[in-house]
Design brief:
single chain, alpha/beta, 8-stranded mixed beta sheet
């Protein structure tokens, strides 16, 4: 069996989760990992049985044996590192948010088109089986016409980057992107208006916000993100003939459907998985094999649309990151 050779750029917590996932996928070989210093790269490689460790990101990008590079660095570096990989002929799977803003993403997509390489956003929820199941249920009218979405997420992680504007911190880019994704899956891309409320830190990042999105047909989404409180990470979709719930919004565990009498009519549980990250990797490999430059689950146009929406929200808040100045 052909084994795709993958490299990981960055060695933080999310990189560790990807390394664990790749080590359990027989169709891939995690060939190399890179950090800013060789000692850290070697420690990471030893932990996960990775054959090659690089003390620079350029060295990884120049490895002739690598098919695909997964970018796991902080938000503000995504554009720079994606361009580095593309300029060295590597396909790219880049963590969410894909870039800091739409303009940066357009630059990356243009470079990928120029080099005829795949690049996609690692917004794992988009690739998961239960996300497809949700779309089928709504299309089949399981709850009638959906009219109201309520969803919340929290990030109480002590990670310094979440609080640092220099690293693209804040709730919107880190977890708000999941809320805007579920909104898109339920109601589609057209939005008539958005109203927001936000609480910001002394450093200027968004600690907590509420987004209300009005869609055509009297449809409304109310999305709450917080770095101050614990959320149940659930979404509720209310329709004309019932409602449904989604447990664990970013890595859905189950969807339960209820009828007009609020009686459960079906439970859809996620299949056994390694971590949930395997789906985005397999989508990339399939796309590369067929010469595609984007994944069907996460088209470039959708990455741009969500970034444009977040750009607009931050503009309303008067919030710009130092790297955008």
């Amino acid at each position: 069996m052909h084994q795709w050779k993958i490299g990981i750029l960055g060695t933080g917590g999310i990189a560790e989760k990807m390394a664990y996932t790749l080590s359990r996928m027989p169709e891939v070989l995690l060939l190399a990992a890179a950090a800013r210093d060789e000692e850290r790269a070697r420690a990471f490689a030893q932990r996960f049985g990775v054959p090659r460790a690089y003390g620079s990101y350029l060295a990884l990008a120049q490895d002739p044996d690598i098919d695909l590079i997964y970018i796991a660095t902080p938000n503000n570096y995504h554009r720079e590192h994606a361009l580095l990989c593309l300029n060295n002929g590597k396909h790219v799977l880049c963590e969410k948010p894909f870039t800091m803003n739409e303009a940066e993403a357009l630059e990356v997509f243009a470079k990928a088109a120029e080099r005829r390489l795949l690049v996609t956003e690692a917004l794992w929820t988009r690739y998961m089986p239960l996300s497809a199941q949700l779309c089928r249920l709504l299309k089949d009218g399981a709850i009638g016409e959906p009219f109201l979405l309520q969803a919340s997420m929290s990030a109480l992680s002590p990670l310094p980057r979440l609080k640092d504007p220099n690293l693209g911190g804040g709730a919107l880019l880190d977890i708000g992107v999941y809320l805007l994704t579920i909104d898109a899956l339920v109601f589609g891309s057209e939005v008539e208006s958005i109203s927001t409320s936000v609480i910001r830190s002394a450093e200027g990042i968004d600690l907590q916000s509420c987004l209300s999105l009005l869609h055509p047909g009297q449809k409304l989404a109310v999305l709450s993100s917080t770095m101050l409180a614990v959320s149940d990470r659930r979404a509720y979709v209310y329709g004309s003939k019932g409602f449904l719930t989604i447990d664990n919004l970013n890595n859905p565990e189950q969807i339960e459907v209820f009828d007009q009498n609020r009686c459960s009519t079906g439970v859809y549980r996620r299949p056994e998985q390694i971590s949930g990250m395997e789906y985005e990797v397999r989508s990339c490999l399939n796309a590369i094999e067929y010469g595609q430059m984007e994944c069907p689950e996460m088209p470039h146009a959708e990455t741009l649309r969500i970034l444009r929406r977040m750009d607009s929200i931050r503009a309303d808040w008067g919030m710009r990151y130092p790297c955008e100045q």
